[in-house]
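User: Please run a holo structure prediction.
Assistant: Happy to. Please share the sequence and the ligand.
User: Here you go; the ligand is copper (II) ion.
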Amino acid sequence: MNKFNRRQFIALAIGSGSITAGTTLWFKKSNSQEYRTKESLNSPKVYQSQDGLLEVNLEANYTRVNLAGKTAYLLTYNGQIPAPRLEVKPGDRVRIKLTNKLQQPTNLHYHGLHLPPTGKADNVFVRINPQETFIYEFEIPSTHKAGTFWYHPHVHGYVADQLSGGLAGLFIIRGDLDEIPEIKTAKEEFLVLQDFSLDNQGRLYSSDYMNLMAGREGNVITINGQINPTFSLNKNGLLRLRILNASTSRFYNLSLENHPFYLIAMDGNTIRNPIEQTELLLTPGQRAEILVKGKQTPRPYRLLNLPYNRGGMGMMGGGMMGGRMGGMMHGRQDFNNPTVLGKIQYDGISEDISLPTQLTSINNLSKSDKTRRFTLNHGMFPGVGMAFLINNQPYDHQRIDTQVKVNTVEDWELINTGVMDHPFHLHVNSFQVISRNGINEPYPTWRDTVLVRRGETVKIRIPFQDFTGKTVYHCHILDHEDLGMMGNLEIVS
Ligand code: C2O
Ligand code: CU
Ligand code: CU
């Protein structure tokens, strides 16, 4: 299984030559405004577009950082865990200069954005070699929806290693959702969920020690690079949490003591009306936006990660090599008990803010032009060995697996015939989830990543809009993706 990559990663993880101080800033003067959010000192840097342009320099490097008060050696953009948050508006131009100081090739993918998959835009076939620089340049369509998106590396074979090393940041599009009066008055917090596999010295375990088949899970869970951080809420007020699961494989099944969540957006897609729920399952790659209403007795309440069994773990023998994990910090996998991820405390009192009712209107896609089937499983494949497969084949760079016509709508039936859950993700175009095991979904929800549990069949409806070119779909358990569960999609005119 990809020995070459792993060796490279070990070299990267133990080589000391490239360590630089985590506090160094590489930002040059640019058009973009730079500030640090006032409330939380440890929150990432933010770069907002100015006069229609976001211009940012990013450097991917192996860096010494302060992770929750301890030294750790991680892969970062500009020395930051999580990476800087980028904020734009529809119609803005984006110019990102990425310098690769890693010892492996890298690139950037703009997860969830509706952009051309070609040229200097959301092109996952770009390969930036060590010491090279690449300038991404694209325009956010003026019709682009507002929402929570993100960026991360996407060179096949290196994605899981680079994500689990820390390379991930939020990409926010401001727009109509932010202008809804109740949402505008809500206090806004961003939560980037990441887990890291660290030894007692704060160094990353090499992937040799991790269970790649099950999908690696780290022993240290962080929110915005902090362990068990506290967020605050006003009595009677609204708190808007914008949550990203940037973990390589870990699912989060979130719950907040004594407080329901009001879901307002999934994967950068605003939903029609807020939906009340007490649990929120977020698979790798997914984002959710929720509102929390401050209507309890003021005291701290725990943000919990409830147990969720995504399959394959028992069979594959657990997440990590048992005895090697000393546990520099807490956050170990526990299938039976909830773990605490953070806290929410009451800070003050505000006017009674009610929940918004109507958020947006949603067009149902009533019919499709074509139906296709994709089976998800793993198994032996000649010349490869054990691999993760879509329609019985592991990923091949050269092969076009699926060719579609731009401006058509297709139904894709995603059939999981295996023993593990797979969150299925498509680039460039969002899709509507139509049915699960033949039962129509109660609400037409737009997403870019959908969970297909073991044994399930999920039908999605995809409008291929605006852009032609080659892109990919894959399982967002990134070890599965690197081990073959990805396909090439060509959108033709
Ligand atoms: Cu966040 Cu191809 O993925
Ligand atoms: Cu993506
Ligand atoms: Cu998978």
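Residues 109, 111, 425, 427 surround copper (II) ion (ligand 2) (CB under 6 Å).
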